[in-house]
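Sorry, can you check?
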Amino acid sequence: MTDGRAGRAGGGGDAHAAGGGRGSPDDLVRVMLRPIASSAPLAFFAFGVGTVLYTALQLQWVPLAQAEPLTVILLAFVAPLEIITGLIAFAARDGGLATIMLMFGAVWTSIAITMRLSPPGGRSAMLGIFLLTVAAMLVAMSSASARTRPLLFVLALLAATRFTLSGVYEINGSTAVEHASGWVGIPIVAIALYAGTAFLLEDTMRRTVLPVARRRTARTAIEGDLSQQVQRVTQEAGVRQQL
C-alpha cells in the first residue's frame, strides 16, 4: 500500500518533468526509520560494573597489585560496551545518551591505559587534568537532560563529581580525596543498577514497570503516538543538509 506522497514521488514523473525538474522535497524524498532495541540497559549495566571495580581499588578493598587486572577488564569489557551502546544510541536518534556513553567509554579507556603504563599506586598529573576537564564537560552535557531525564542528569552529575575528586587525587595524592571519590561510586552503582533494570524491563515488556522520571519530550517519546515521534525528523542530523 502506498500513500499519496509515495504516489507523487513514484508516479508523478510526467508532472515533475513538466515542471522543469523542480518539486517539493515531500514529493521527492521519503525518510525510512528502522526500529532497533534500546541500548540504555547495557549502557547503564556496563557503567555500573566499571564503577564497582574502580571503587574497589580506590577504597583498597583489593590490593594495589590488582590494578593491572582492572585495566584488562576495563579495556576488554567496560569500555567496548560503553562505546557500542553509544553508537547504537546515535542510530536510535538519542544524541544525549549517545554523547554521554561514548564519553564514558573513552574515559574508561584512557584511565585503563594510563594505569597500565604506571606502576601500581602511581599517579599521573596529566590524567588528573584530563579527569577535571571531563568532569566540566559532563556538567555541561548533563544540563541538557536535566528537564527531561533527571535520572541520567543525576548519574552524569555524580560521575562528574567522582572524576573531579579522582583528578584532584591524581594531582596532589591525597588519600582522603581518593577515598571520597571511591565512596561517590556507591550511589553511582545503585543508580546504574536501577536504571539498567528499569530500561530493560521497559524494553522487554513494552511498558513502564519501574519509573525513571521522564519529563516533557522524553515522556512524549514513550507515551506519544508515531506522528509525534517523526514530526520533526526532517530537521534531524542525517536528513538536514548541515549539522
Remarks:
- The radius of gyration is 23 Å.
- The chain is about 70% helix and 0% strand.
- Residues 134 and 204 are 33 Å apart (CA to CA).
- The chain has a mean pLDDT of 80.
